[in-house]
Amino acid sequence: MPKGCDHVLFDYGINVGLWYSALACLLRPEDSQVGILQVLECLGKRGWQNQRLMDAKERQAAGQAMKLNFVQRIAHDVYRLRNNFLHGNAVSLKDLTHGETLGTGTYTHILPLVYQIAVEQFVYVNDFVARPPDTPLEELLAEASIEEIEELAAASLADDSLEEALITFQLGRPRTWEERLADMGREEIWVTDPDGTKHRLIRKKQDSSDRSKP
Q: Measuring CA to CA, which residue among 82, 71, 73, 149 is closest to residue 113?
């Protein structure tokens, strides 16, 4: 990003503004304009495995009430901050760094990931790259060759890493092992074998009524 003037508030404001401009420039068609609605629509095309990233909250965007997921809310935060900063409205350093959506880090830390998501969806929408099928991974693996399995595993690892990074920004900390299991609907229990040996078992999470049943 271009060098600022070494005044922290000014530098953060310029940085945030440039990141939003990068999103808008990426998505701008040749024959029309692009605004926040187009940016949010693009980011909303990305599917997520974790419910934390899918959970939507209502925001007002361009005069419309919209349900926005976590990544969309980051982009909306940046859009509003950019407008306030460039128009001379009151903006604090906290506004420009953490805002109301992030649990940790700053917008300048998470915006490269948001831009990555926008690029990904841009190439899919414009048919530069074929969008991955919605077929469950287990079904794909069952019919895949060794080379395809390696590619699928690498892609799955990249997706998992992206989601984990975003969730860390959201929560303000990495998830615990128990939270990871709970997010997958699983829980860890200790099982005692007939010989007295104990070992851990991961099973589908049960509610209190299920546990009370014999």
A: 71
What are the Cα distances from residue 95, in Å, to 20, 23, 77? 15, 20, 9
Pairwise CA distance, residues 85 & 20, whole Å: 12
CA separation (Å) from 206 to 21, 179, 181, 185, 187?
47, 15, 12, 9, 8
Helix (H, G, I), strand (E, B) or coil at 6: coil
Domain ranges of the chain: 8-133, 177-205
CA distance 65 to 165: 28
Cα distance between residue 20 and residue 15, in whole Å: 9
What is the spatial distance between Cα 131 and Cα 75, in angstroms, rounded to a whole number? 23
pLDDT at 115 over 90: yes
Question: What is the distance between the alpha carbons of residues 10 and 86, in angstroms, rounded to a whole number?
Answer: 10
Strand 57-61 and strand 198-204: the pairing is unpaired
Determine the straight-line distance between the first and last CA of the chain, rounded to whole angstroms. Answer: 62
Query: Helix crossing, 36-44 with 70-86: angle to 10°?
Result: 160
Per residue in 41-60, pLDDT (tens digit) is: 999 999 998 999 999 999 99
Residue among 145, 159, 17 at smallest CA distance from 84? 17
Number of helices (H) and strands (E), helices first, in the chain? 10, 4
pTM: 0.80
Lowest mean pLDDT segment, chosen from 22-36, 39-53, 75-89: 22-36
